[in-house]
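Researcher: Quick sanity check before group meeting.
Model: Go ahead. Protein one:
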Amino acid sequence: MDHLPHYSCRLIARIVVACIVLLPGVAAAQSLTYGIEGLDGELARNVRAWLGPEPETPAERQNFVASARERSASALQALGYYRPDIDISVDRSASRWTMRIAVTPGEPVRLREIDLNVSGEATTDEAFAELLASPGFAGGDVLHHGKFERFRSELLSLAQKRGYFDARIASSRITVDADAGAADVRVLLESGERFAFGEFEYDQTL
């Protein structure tokens, strides 16, 4: 069998290496960049977090564009904005698409009724009374789902630290009336019994 000349082998190797080097650039050129208008601060950061990194392949790009509106709406709802106006336009004239997300967040949903309680032996525990009195949100505040989840975590963490090892969240609910711009929140912790360690005895005969 005839062997390829050495220079041909070197040429083929260089072509293969060149293709490998160029592939990421080709994918990037065929991808997408986007900008957000009408938002700043925490709202803009949360929308970007929900959208995720810019896509790198044509397939990822299609999915990114298709889900952009829903993801943006979810990001805004997490911070209490349930009635946004989201306008998305995509310029596909170049190999690298450009997407514009223009948002008018609208008026936020604010907390109306707040019902936070504990049952069981923890009802007489001052540590819980202090936490319930300062949950991190109050009536009239803009609904922030992150603060609500943080309070739930703090409630369960406190229960464990105070010896209520059977404690559980019996009820946890956020009821949003977007048309009225109001939300009601309810959390009930069932603490159960408070466990305590008995007297420790040391047997020197062991």
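Researcher: Fine. The other one?
Model: Protein two, sequence then structure:
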Amino acid sequence: MTNGTEFAIWDQIGTPNENEFQKIILEAILEGGQRNNSLAVGGFVEVQSDGTYQKHLITGPLTHIGLGGKPADTIRVVWPNGVPQEVIEPEANQIFTEVQILKGSCPFLATSNDDGSWEFVTDLLWRSPLGLKINAQTVPAIAATQDWVKIRGDQLHARDGVYEVAITAQLWETHFIDELKMLAIDHPIGTEVFVDERFVAPVPPSYGLYIYENVQSPVRAIDQTGKDILGIVQARDGLRLGGFAKGPYQGVATDHFVELDLGQIDASPGSAIDIIAQGWIRPTDTSINVASAQGSSSPPKALEVSIPDGKGGWKIVIPNGGFPAGKLKTIILEIPMDSFVDNDNRVRISTNLEIYWDKLSFATRAFVDIKELPIKLLSADLGYMGFPYMSRTDVNAPNIPDYKDIRYGNAWRDLEGYYTRYGAVEPLLQEIDDRYVIMNAGDAMYLQFKELTQPMPGMTRDFIFFTDGWVKDGDWNTVDSRTVGPLPHHAMSGYPYPNNERPPELLPSYSDWQEFHTRYVTPTSFRDALK
């Protein structure tokens, strides 16, 4: 049975007597989460009881497990897409509620607090997933490997002459990071600076700075039901717009929109209005995309931006606006002023993706003097962090890691292969050259950048963090998801690629594979955890 929310329920029935068995009923969540079949057929249940181990293939709605009169010490279910869920020391007659956890979402970026603890900023490298299927067969080409995100000035403070940043790997993924760098952006006090943090296929947006002097809220905002939602989207305060019906699969909802009335706009002819949309997306994954393509549900639809056509209808001005590339993102949607008809300055942003808006505002770009200052990377050290506890504040909020609450052990079935050994890794991050750091789940790369002198009077500072690389998740429907290889490179024609395309930097004879990539990881410890 299910409770109709984002939970799977495990029902352990009764206390086993001698020569009796334990009954376990499993059912995947139904609303917005059919990433597996509803009864988990094809997955398996593992049970540890009084030093004995059992593994049972799930073939129907009820799994019988003989325990010889002993209680179960640990129960672990591995769902058909490979996601593990574990309950330790289950009690008799207890209903177990387990969240269907997000298994892939790219590496996380964190900055150091004044006390040395870490604080989540956003996630990285959404533009370059390896082997991700968008339907039952198609693996799209990777159009861009570089990613950029903004770090607000209040999120990054120097300590002892350095800025401290960490890239952390918590999910069922392998990360390949080829280059990273950071810029400081000094701009006049009273202005705001953003970068466009969108995923758009097949042509991604190019890097650029968007500078504004007078960011405004719309005068009116409604959702697809006509409900006034202006109070929800006026500020970046953690109050996010949901309210749409979930679809049959995680990440895809029913069609929904938000309509903004911008009011009177002070902009010159020939200029453009930028919609500054801040929010996050709950993504699909390969298993969901495959299942969706084999069914009758609507495929995912990127953001579509429309304005009134002057005839009582709407005309599309941005047919493919992509979507926010992860958690806590800002995207820029540019609308030429000349597109509006009869001073009707309404804008409708439509999609069927699970996108939750925090703040929606608009502005015209300012032309002011700024300074872009490269920041020197002093050190980069790869090490083991573990797995921060993930939680969210409400149903419209993303899961955010708590770096003060770390779990250790084997959270995932690791992709097998050679990873970068722990220690200094700066030589691998200096430029885009197919020499990269290979990170496993549980790893963290700790970075130190040299502190800059303070901004000039009248100026304030934000930061832009760049990464170049790829991400491969362990979803069993992702291509080559059991292993670290095939190793990606910038000239590959697709993924996987023919052996004759492999560059010399990725051959075992290259020096990096004796100096850096010497840590061999297998899924054995995960597989045998209950044995």
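Researcher: One line on it for the slide.
Model: Residues 192-367 form a domain with the Jelly Rolls fold (CATH 2.60.120.260).
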